[in-house]
Write a structure and sequence with these properties.
Strand 4, helix 4 and strand 5 form a beta-alpha-beta unit. Helix 2 packs parallel to helix 3, helix 6 runs parallel beside helix 7 and helix 13 packs across helix 15. Helix content is 48%, strand content 15%. By secondary structure, it is of the alpha/beta class. It starts with a strand and ends with a helix. It has a five-stranded parallel beta sheet, sandwiched between helices. The chain has 16 helices and 14 strands.
Length: 383
């Protein structure tokens, strides 16, 4: 059942709205002024607030701002006898869902309330989904190298600085990039990922910058590239050490000028993108060997984060293994299995050349093939 609050200094309006809304099956509370309304919003979770603009103690527009600071996602429908454009525009600017003139048309009021409830549900679902995604992308570990990585993420995420993430395959570079995006100021905008090693060199430019119709054989329509898709958000260039020198030159220009040109086009397109890059290669060596542009390296590596291999942080293995046990149990809809102490010690002694990714695969294999308790013998057999 949706829960609503009516905030209005006129008792007759509150009574009339309550009768209508309770008849429709909604749970309704009421407040006689803005201050009382704010206290109710702090104490309860409302889907919708129907709020007058002109009230004693605290007017509706001020209440709208203070309620937004609480961050509960209550949708405000402003109701006022003063139906001027300025009030409507100001209410919308401050985040109101809609603006209705007194006395409200019954049909319009009920439709607006239903739509506001739907939006409120979407806001809650989005927050829940973000929390789940954030937990999935959580960097697990308490070792000193991982603490340094987490501290750097906390400091760099709220900035616009470009970040270069280095580390071996499977160490968790992609997770670091996702954490930076999720903790930054662009989290409401897209994170667009490009695996530079997986795209043929002749297609990388089209993938990054898009192309015009007829730019090459098979280009049957105009296509936006990853830079355009990430506009306003973050572009994650994974395995950038595998990018061709030609594409590197164009990426450098895009970073310098905040503009791109589609393949086969001549129009410059402005972009606003934060770039995070990652590589498993030693880019300084690649520069010496002529495989990577030094100027691009310096553009990308304003902040450098090195993700240590799992072998250098064995104390994190129990935490990671427990997380994977719970994640896999949730995926399979089963209770998590237990790993014995000596089995865990044996896991810690392994070289883990495939890093965190390999550990996750091993844990999933053990969950599938072993009984309720995973023993050392099981690990020796299947790891």
């Amino acid at each position: 059942m949706a829960r609503l609050v009516i905030i209005d200094d006129e008792k007759s309006i509150r009574d009339a709205l309550r009768d209508i809304l309770e008849y429709e099956g909604y749970e309704v509370d009421e407040a006689k002024d803005g201050e009382e309304g704010l206290e109710l919003i702090k104490q309860n979770n409302y889907d919708v607030a129907l709020c007058d603009i002109k009230m004693p103690k605290m007017d509706g527009l001020e209440l709208l701002l203070k309620a937004a600071e609480i961050g509960k996602g209550t949708q405000f429908i402003m109701i006022s006898a003063y139906g001027n454009v300025e009030n409507a525009v100001e209410a919308t600017k401050r985040g109101a869902f809609d603006f209705i003139i007194k006395p409200p048309d019954l049909n319009r009021l009920l439709v607006t309330v239903r739509n506001a409830i739907e939006k409120s549900k979407l806001v809650v679902e989005t927050k829940t989904l973000k929390r789940k995604i954030y937990k999935l992308n959580e960097i697990v570990g308490e070792s000193e190298p991982i603490r340094r990585v987490k501290e750097t993420i906390e400091r760099v995420a709220p900035t616009e600085a470009r970040v270069l993430i280095t580390g071996a395959n499977g160490a968790g570079k992609e997770m670091v990039a996702k954490q930076i995006h999720e903790k930054g100021n662009r989290t409401s905008m897209p994170l667009v990922e490009v695996n530079c090693a997986a795209i043929p060199s002749e297609l990388i430019e089209s993938e990054l910058f898009g192309h015009e119709k007829g730019a090459f054989t098979g280009a049957t329509s105009r296509r936006a590239g990853k830079f355009e898709q990430a506009d306003g958000g973050t572009l994650f260039l994974d395995e950038i050490g595998d990018m061709s020198l030609t594409a590197q030159a164009k990426v450098l220009r895009a970073l310098q000028e905040s503009k791109i040109t589609r393949v086969g086009g001549d129009k410059e397109i402005k972009i606003n993108v934060r770039v995070i890059a990652a590589t498993n290669k030693d880019l300084r060596r690649e520069i010496q060997e002529g495989n990577f542009r030094e100027d691009l390296f310096h553009r990308l590596s304003v902040i450098r984060i090195h993700v240590p291999p799992l072998a250098e942080r064995p104390e994190d293995i129990p935490l990671l293994a427990e997380k994977f046990l719970h994640d896999i149990a949730n995926e399979y809809g089963a209770p998590p299995k237990e790993i014995t102490k000596d089995a865990m010690e044996y896991l810690q002694s392994l070289p883990w050349t495939g890093n965190v990714r390999e550990l996750r695969n091993v844990v999933e294999r053990l969950v599938i093939l072993c009984g309720d308790k995973i023993t050392r013998y099981d690990v020796e057999m299947y790891a």
